[in-house]
Design goal:
With about 350 residues, the protein is an alpha+beta fold. It is built from eleven helices and twelve strands. The longest helix has 23 residues.
Length: about 350
Amino acid sequence: MIKVRAKAPLRLGLAGGGTDVAPYSDDFGGMVLNATVSLHAYCTVASRDDGQVSFEALDIEAVFTHAATPVLPVDHELALIAQCYNRIVADYCKGQPFACTIQTHADVPPGSGLGSSSTMVVAVITALAEFLRLPLGEYEIAHLAFVIERQDLGLAGGKQDQYAATFGGFNLMEFYADDRVIINPLRLRRSIVSELEAGLILYFSGRSRASAQIIDEQVRNVKSGATKSIDAMHRLKDQARQMKEALLLGDFPAFGEVMRQGWSAKRDMASTISNEGIEAVLDAAMAAGAHGGKISGAGGGGFIMISVPPERKPTVLRALKSHDGTVFNCTFTSEGAQAWTVR
């Protein structure tokens, strides 16, 4: 039996999130600053000799089994895995199916705001590439993941998640029309990353959310020419540049200020991005001494990222205990998606 595993890191959206979503990115060009953390999506692919495929999402206890055919149905809850298989068979196996078991799980719940769905797709593609010895580079893996989610399955969203999971690290990403993407890695001093980690609180609000409704509203606002939403995205794009400069200089008060401004701009993109629970958590953190905070991802729930002076971190953590969420421990990681064969 042949068995391979892969993992891909989840990301924190630091600034510019939402400008990677068409039509804004096509019309104006998007820019996002993000960083991957030591929370991952995982995939295992194993060969089998019974002519079947079996997909298992271990963390949600979902299973899909089918004969290994060139095109598998995608009208089920494991459609993302099935379409990864369909694309690989069509594009790289000359339409010849292969029997296998694909198992997945992640370190965070679905709908977390850390790009978990896209990261899972990247992990599956990376594992299948290792399993079949496909010579796929980072841009090819990320673009294929985008095509599977956004074009094949029509799932609403942008492009940053796929590229963050594939490349890893701190990246300033540029998004343009015709699927043109430029990844600019940031070379940060280790002391800056350590200080950022020392003051990072990753707080799960306890409420997962489906991002599609929020993103659909954002897209409608851009298509209709809604000035408030488009101006907010212009500000978010500019804040990605500002945050890049703050990080490179190690200016953490400026980092927190850009985060606060970014959250203000993000709330203007769509009405469902924030709610009373999110605002209560952020207000408590700021009152306890945080630099700034924001939702990671589309909004509405999921993870809240809070930046604090490290000496104020215990105070902020105490303030958050009166709320219903959970603090996750993590560090930043420089490695993107990777796969290996199990011997």
